[in-house]
Amino acid sequence: MTSTTTQIISPTWIAPVIPDGALLLDHSLVIEGSRITALLPQTEALARFPDAPNLKLEGHLVTPGFVNSHGHAAMTLLRGIADDREMMDWLTNWIWPIEGELVSEQFVYDGTRLAAMEMIMGGTTCAADTYFFPEAASRALTQMNFRAQVGMPVLQFANAWARNEEDHIHKGLAFRDSIKNSSLVTTAFAPHSPYNVSDSGFNKIQLYSEQLDLAVHLHLHETATEATDSLRNIGVRPIERMNKLGILSPSLQAVHMTQLRDDEIELLAVYGVQVAHCPESNMKLASGFCPVEKLRARNINVAIGTDGAASNNDLDMIQEVRSASLLSKATTGDATSLDAQTCLEMMTINGARFLGLEDQIGSLEPGKLADITAIDLSHPSFQPIYNPISQLVYTASARDVSNVWIGGKRVMDNRQLPEVDAESILAATRQWQKKILAVSNKQP
Ligand SMILES: [Zn+2]
User: Fold this and answer.
1) 223: CA distance to ligand 1 center in Å?
2) Is pLDDT of 3 > 50?
3) pTM value surpassing 0.85
4) Inter-helix orientation angle 165-178/134-143, to 10°
5) Cα-to-centroid distance, 159 and ligand 1 (Å)
6) What's the CA gap between 146 and 196, in Å, rounded?
């Protein structure tokens, strides 16, 4: 019997990610409500579910929705405002002063809506977000039916959202209570970085994260300066400090990790730390390279993140993973490094694992949530097609994504977002552009 909520998607190719390396030709995905219930040959699916709507996608590849493992959604409003600057100059002389004057609940809500629109249109269905006013980000993402881990930010300095570390933690825990029944939003502690959170702040985070089973999402070893300053000031590099504070564990989502000695990689492996690799942000800010192959060789989970649009400057996960692959090949001298299938895993199941959601998303398997991305490979620039996963990783971009489902709901239909008022998002963006430009003109 067919339920009224059953729908069928029948593309030319399905790359389910699990089982490893599988590529199904002329198969259908069967979705009931929010979940995938079957993957069948198309003829069998149509025979078993004759009344269900069947979306035929000739020349399309269907994959799990992409998982962006690190970003700051509201910072899309700062895209391109201070390019071509050294990281600490960029952060301390541009980003922080502009944020200091303008960040508000409305800024975060509007910027997050712009980011969610861009991510959905690029095939991303889930993201780890960390910024001020997490309740505003969560509201924007939920309204757009977008899945996310919205972090509880912790910083030493006062800002529009919180006064000090204690206040951040207090407000973060209240935010956690407010989303505990959400089917889309989860949370984690998001201490900004070792240089912005005190030992006592980390002690409290460690205590609460253990008690409440919360992950810790942290920029760590992003730049050489971060590591050398720490060594000079307190006698140890940040990873060693995190080790002493009990922060290293499978719950640690370590972001960037461009500066790693072999003994530090060993520590990460022993504690089961997970890593978010953000190659374009690292290259743009000249921060260094995350040694992805060395981490993978020690079975450390590596996911892919775009970071905020202010240091990228886009949220395109396809181009991000291509950059990861090319960067790895270039820095290791090994052309076999991060092949197309590995890239697809990094942007899907590895991201799901990174967020503790691997039982729910990250692959197209019966029982999992129907978070699905379709990429149109019919354009001449994709022809001929010997391997559609190679075409996805090495040829496509966000603009080739045609349809997207989150929890079985079609959030993009042939490049249109049926339930999003795109014009109001763009109008709000234009207003912020004027305000941000006025503030940035005051910078040196
Ligand atoms: Zn970041």
Assistant:
1) 12
2) no
3) yes
4) 30
5) 17
6) 29
